[in-house]
Amino acid sequence: MASSYSWTRKQNEQFENALAKYYKDTPDRWHNIARAVTGKSADEVRRHYEALEKDINKIENDQVPIPNYNDHRFLKNLKLQ
Known about the structure:
Keywords: Developmental protein, Nucleus, Transcription, Transcription regulation. It is found in: Nucleus. The protein has helices at about 10-20, 30-35, 40-60, 70-75. By secondary structure, it is mainly α. Helix 2 crosses helix 3 (about 40-60).
């Protein structure tokens, strides 16, 4: 089974789609979401959700600094694809 710290783009898409389908009041929500996400357990998807909630709360409470895109050090390290 994949590590809970390692999420592919496909797994994140599956996770987002499952969150839209299984609301908070859905019985066995995390088990249903885990069935929709390849290689993840109910506990892994629940922890992923909780980590995202923490990140969103930090952003909404201005606890994440806004990057200074005019900073030349930032631009020098930026790799354009």
